[in-house]
Amino acid sequence: MAWADVFQQKRFSPEKFQKVNLFETERMFCDVYCFEPGQDQAAHKHQGADKIYYVLEGKGIVQIGAERRELTPGMVAHAESGEEHAVSNPGPDRLVMLVFMAPRPS
Amino acid sequence: MAWADVFQQKRFSPEKFQKVNLFETERMFCDVYCFEPGQDQAAHKHQGADKIYYVLEGKGIVQIGAERRELTPGMVAHAESGEEHAVSNPGPDRLVMLVFMAPRPS
Prior knowledge:
2 copies of one chain form a homodimer.
Chain A: E1 3-5, E2 18-25, E3 28-35, E4 40-44, E5 50-57, E6 60-64, E7 67-71, E8 75-79, E9 85-88, E10 95-102
Antiparallel strand pairs in A: 2-3, 3-10, 4-9, 5-8, 5-10, 6-7, 6-9
């Protein structure tokens, strides 16, 4: 599939944040991440891969390396290979992000 | 730089569409593409690299392989390695897209 409507792909769960894959090859993936208020993606890092977070809806607290910022729609963050990164949704709204990673982790 | 506000990065030229780089490593780039009405990116392809177009503002006619669709904000297209792709802005508004490519062409 070469096409998607991002806002039609949103999916939430009360148990944990959801990753909805849109596109994937060995060179990259493109996902929609959907966080209920209070949900988070814990700090982690990837050696040899970059990640981009773009905020579509809501408000996210994004950590890249030692820095933490509040991101709203239109804002984007880049975690380079080896940089620790994390996301949390402080609420009160749902948080939706477009996420790219290259290369795709194996 | 690990952070950007995409809408503050928009830049237009009457001569041709503008590519504004946000992030770049050897593994990927993330750009904002800005088209005045009537401007286009001609059909081309990349062997060994994937491209993603996400529409932020305006309306784009996007070709992927043999298919051509009209994309509005929230819609995304994926050109896989070797697939021909092109974008044009039919107007009347400016077209702004978030673009990812992996790996970065050398």
